[in-house]
Design brief:
Length: 80
């Protein structure tokens, strides 16, 4: 598990010269307690995944690198 700050360090250390698209995932927690389709926080998760999917469909990507954070929900996704 890496933290948000760890993800930023990886980006600056290893991807400084790389060409990439940085797509931060919303950290808006909304009401994560709401259960829909038997999934806690379904609407928020769906919104985040839909945003990522939309970007993936719009870009001609060779690789995808996702850096996930801890329970603080501060995630970073890098689409290369």
């Amino acid at each position: 598990m890496i933290t948000y700050e760890g993800a930023k360090e990886i980006m600056s250390t290893y991807l400084d010269e790389a060409e990439y698209i940085n797509l931060p995932v919303s950290v808006d927690q909304g009401n994560m307690a709401v259960i829909k389709n038997n999934i806690k926080g379904f609407d928020i998760l769906y919104k985040q995944m839909h945003l990522a999917y939309t970007h993936l469909c719009d870009e001609n990507l060779d690789k995808i690198l996702m850096l996930g954070g801890g329970c603080d929900g501060m995630y970073r996704s890098l689409y290369i």
